[in-house]
Design brief:
Largest sheet: none
Number of strands: 0
Strand content: under 5%
Order of helices and strands: HHH
Oligomer: single chain
Helix content: 55-70%
Radius of gyration: 19 Å
C-alpha cells in the first residue's frame, strides 16, 4: 500500500480539480466547489433547533421524542466538528 503525500493548505487554496465532480470540464464547465460554509451554517442551525426541541420534549415528558432529537443533535454536532476540521485544513467553500 502506497502512502499518499499529505496535502497542505496551499493544495486546498484553489480547490482540488475535479474533486467529487464527475461532470467537471464537460461543456467547458468549471469544477464544482464545496459549500462548506453553507453546510456549517445549516449544521449549526440544526444543532440549535435540536437542542431547543430536546429541552422542550423532556420538559413535556415526551421522552422518546427527546431521545430522538438528542441523537439528531449529536449527529449535527459531529457534522459541524468535521466541517470545521476541513475548513481549518484549508479547503475552500
Amino acid at each position: 500500500m502506497r502512502d499518499k503525500p499529505r496535502r497542505g493548505k496551499a493544495d486546498y487554496a484553489g480547490g482540488l480539480p475535479d474533486h467529487h465532480d464527475p461532470t467537471a470540464g464537460i461543456g467547458g464547465a468549471a469544477p464544482a466547489q464545496s459549500a462548506l460554509t453553507l453546510r456549517a451554517v445549516l449544521a449549526a442551525v440544526g444543532l440549535v433547533v435540536c437542542i431547543v426541541a430536546a429541552v422542550a420534549a423532556f420538559a413535556l415528558d415526551v421522552v422518546p421524542l427527546g431521545v430522538v432529537v438528542v441523537v439528531l443533535a449529536v449527529i449535527a454536532l459531529v457534522d459541524l466538528i468535521w466541517i470545521v476540521r476541513r475548513k481549518r485544513r484549508g479547503e475552500p467553500g
